[in-house]
Amino acid sequence: MSQYAALRANVGLLGTQLGDTIRNQLGDAVLERIEQIRAVAKEARQGTELQDQQLKQVLASLTDQEILPVARAFAQFLNLANLAEQHHTISKAGRASIEKPEPVAELLQLLQNKNVSKSRIEQAVADLSIELVLTAHPTEVTRRTLIHKLTEIASCLAELEQDLAPAQQEKTENRLYQLITQAWHTNEIREQRPTPVDEAKSGFAVIETSLWDAIPEFIRDLDTALIPVLGHGLALDAAPIRFSSWMGGDRDGNPFVTAKVTRQVLLLSRWKAADLFSRDLDILANELSMNQANDALRAVVGEASEPYRKLLNDVRYKLLHTRDWLTEALKHDRLQRPEGLIWHNQQLLEPLLLCYQSLLDCKMQVVAEGLLKDTIRRAYAFGLTLLKLDVRQESGRHTAVFSEFTRYLGIGDYAEWDEPARQAFLLNELSSKRPLFPRNWSPSPEVKEVLDTCDIVARHGPEALSTYVISMAGKPSDVLAVQLLLKDAGITFPMRVAPLFETLADLTNAPECISKLLAIDWYRGYINGRQEVMIGYSDSAKDAGAFAAAWAQYSAQEALVAICQQAKVQLTLFHGRGGTIGRGGGPAHAAILSQPPGSLAGGLRVTEQGEMIRFKFGLNGLAQRSLALYASAVLEGVLLPPPVPEQSWRELMQQLATVSCDAYRAVVRHHPDFVPYFRAATPELELGQLPLGSRPPKRNPNGGVESLRAIPWIFAWSQNRLMLPAWLGAGNALAVVVEQGKTELLAQMRAQWPFFATRLSMLEMVYLKADAEIAAYYDEKLVPEHLLPLGLQLRQQLAADTALLLKLIQSDTLMANEAWIRESIMLRNTYVDPLHILQVELLNRVRHAPETVNDSIKRALMVTIAGIAAGMRNSG
C-alpha cells in the first residue's frame, strides 16, 4: 500500500462529495463537463502535446454560463486538497510519509548521539525564546468564513479515521457533505477589502481556534520528551514560544492603520483575552471543587467550603467586568479606567499559582498538573493582551516630524541636516528633562498622526506592545528619532526599537549603522544590554534577486553577531520572512539551521504571514507540529551550530552573489521591455481588483515595478508559473563558476554548509513548481508580439538553469529526496492546470473585449487567481 494511500483516499472522498454537491446544484451536464476537464488535465500532465491542446480547446469552448462553475469547482477542490494534505501531516496514517514526525524526540536523540552534555541541553532549553509575529500581508485569499468550514471538515476527516459504528460513520459523512455544500454556496471572494481591524480579528481567531489549545499541549509534549533526558520538564513559568502581531500596528505604506485603529486593536486584543480566560476559569471552577487547601489560599478566601471555586469565580467575575468595560471603551475615544479591572498579567497569575501550590501541598498533584496547569501556561504565553503588538513605521515619517518642528522653531530643516547634526540635536533633547513639543504648536495632520501613535504606545505599556520597527532605517539617527518621540509621549518602559534593513544597500550598511549606534553612550545605557535588528527578506530579494539577497542577509547577520558580542550586547535577530522562496520562505527548520553560527543566541523572532498562518497553525495538531519544528530547529541551531564558512566558500559565494545580482538587474531594471512584458504576461494589474489585504498594492500609486510591493510582485509571477523572482540570476551565477572549474568546491559547500545546501534546495523546489509550458501559454495569448522574445529568453534561461542544477546535485529528478513535497506539488497540478488556462482566456477577454465582460466573468477571473494561489500554496 502506498504511503500516500490515505491522503489520496481523503482527496478522493472530498472530491466525490464536491461533485455530488455540484450535480445537485447545477445538474449532470455541468458535472460531466468538469469531470471531462479533470480527466483531460490528468492525461495532459502525463501525456502528449495532443492532449495538452485538447485541454486548451475544451476550456476555450466553455460558454459564459459554464466558466464560473468550472473555475469555482477547481478552486474549491484545491482548497479541499490542501486541507486533506494538512490533515495528513498530523494523522496517524501520515506519520510514515512526512519528514520529522517527532522533531523534538529526534533532536534529543541526535544530541545524545553527539555527546552534548546534559547541562548544555538544560541551559539551551531554559533560554529557549521564540516569538512568532503574525502579519496581515495580503496573500491569504481564503475568507475567514470558509476557513471555519475547512477546519470543521478537517475534524470530520479525523473522526472518520476512527473505528466508527456504521451509524456514526454515516452521520460524520453526512456532516462532511453538509460542510462542502455550505462552502460551495458561499462566495469565496470577499465583497470588500478587509480593514486592519478585520485582519487583527483573523489573528485572534487563529489563537482561539487552534493555538489556545496547541500551546499547552505542545509544552506537555516537550516536557514528556525532556524528562527522560534531563530528569525534569520546563519550569512552570516557561513560555518558550510567544506570539506577537503586526495586524493593526503595521502602518508602513498603509494609510488605513491610524493611531485610532491601533488603539482599537489593542483594546480588542484585551477583550478577546478576557473572554478566553473567563471561559477557562469557568471550566476550572467546575473542576476544582475540592475543600482541602493550604494556609496561603485560606488566608485569601477565608473558610469557604470550596476555596478553589471561590477564588476562581472571583477572578472570573473581574475578568467579565473587564470585558464589559472594554466593550464600552471601544465605543469611546477616551474612557477613564476604573478600579477593579484585571489589567496586568500578575493579577491573573497570582490566584492561579496560589491554587496550583495549594493543590501540590495537599497532595493533589495529579489535579494541579491538569487543566489548571494548561491555563497557567496560557497566562505566561498569551497574557491579558493575547498578542503583543508591534508598531512599524517608515523612517521618513519620523524625519518629517522633526523637519516640520525645526522649521517651526526657526533653527533650520532637520531633513537637510547631516547625520552628526541630527544626532547632536536628538541626543541633546533625549538628555533634557523638559517636554520637547510646546503646547501651542499645531502640527500637520501627517505629523500629528505619528505623534498620536507614540501617545497610544506610551499609554498601553509593555504587556501590550513588543517592538517599534523602523522600515527603511539606515542611520543611527533613525533609531534615536523614535526614542525621542516615545520619550516625549511619556513612555515609562524601555520599548525595543528595531531598525529594519531591507534593501541590498541597507543590509550591506547594517553592521556600520549598528556599530555606530552602540558607540553612543546614551543609547548603550538605554538599551540595557539588548539590541533587536530586523532583517528584511522581501525587498532585498526584489532589489537584487534571491541568491544575492540571501548572501547579503547571511553576511549582515554574521557581522551583527560579531559586533554585538564584542560590545557585550545580546542581539535578537528578527526575520521578516514571507511564505515564498522569493520572500525568504521555505521550510522553517532548514531556514533556521542555515543561519550563521551564534545568530540564535538571543532567541528568534520571525514573521508568519498571510496564508502561511493557516497552513502552519490553522488546525490544533498542525499548530503543535509547527511549534515543535520551530523549537527543535532553534535548539539544534544553538547546540549543534553550523560550521563557520571556509574562506574559499565565502569568496565563491560572494562571486555567485555578484554575478546573480548583475544578471537579475540586467533583466528587471535595465531590459527596456521588462515592465511592459511583466504587466502583459501576468495578472499584475488585475490583482489590484482582488480584495485581499487592507494595504494598497503599491507604495506609490503612480510608480512602476520599483514601487510595487514585494508581495504582489511575487504573487503575479506565481500566477503564470514562471516564478521569476525566486530563481532569476542564480543559474547564471552557477553557470559562470562551473565554467571556471569550481564544481568540486560547489559540491563541498553543498555537503558541509547548511546555508548553501538550503539555497540549492530552495531552487530545486522553485524549479519543480515553475512550469515553462504554462508560462508560454500566457505569452502566446496575452503578450504583444514585440515582447515575445523576452518571454522566450526567460523560459530558455529557466530550462538551462534547471538542467544545470540537476547536474550539480547529481539527480535526474527535482526533489527526488523530498518525496512528500514532490507528491504534494504533483497532487495539485491536475487541478491548477485548468485554472491557468481559464485565467488566460478570462484575461484575454477582460483586456481585449471589455464590452463582453459581465460580473460573472469578472468573478470567474478573481476565482482563478484565488484558486491558483491555493494550488501554489505559498503564493506571496
Give a description of the structure.
The active site is at 137, 542. GO terms for molecular function: magnesium ion binding; phosphoenolpyruvate carboxylase activity. It catalyses: oxaloacetate + phosphate = phosphoenolpyruvate + hydrogencarbonate. InterPro entries: PEP_COase (IPR021135), PEP_COase_bac/pln-type (IPR022805), PEP_COase_Lys_AS (IPR018129), PEPCASE_His_AS (IPR033129), Pyrv/PenolPyrv_kinase-like_dom (IPR015813). Its EC number is 4.1.1.31. Mean pLDDT is 91; it is low at 579-585. Helix 4 runs antiparallel to helix 36, helix 5 runs parallel beside helix 25 (620-639) and helix 32 crosses helix 33 (754-769). This protein folds into four domains: 1-98 and 145-186 and 819-875, no CATH class; 123-143 and 196-248 and 257-386 and 612-642, de novo design (two linked rop proteins), CATH 1.20.1440; 389-576, TIM Barrel, CATH 3.20.20; 647-817, no CATH class. An eight-stranded parallel barrel has the order 1-2-3-4-5-6-7-8, surrounded by nine helices. The protein contains 37 helices and eight strands. The protein has 876 residues and is mainly α.
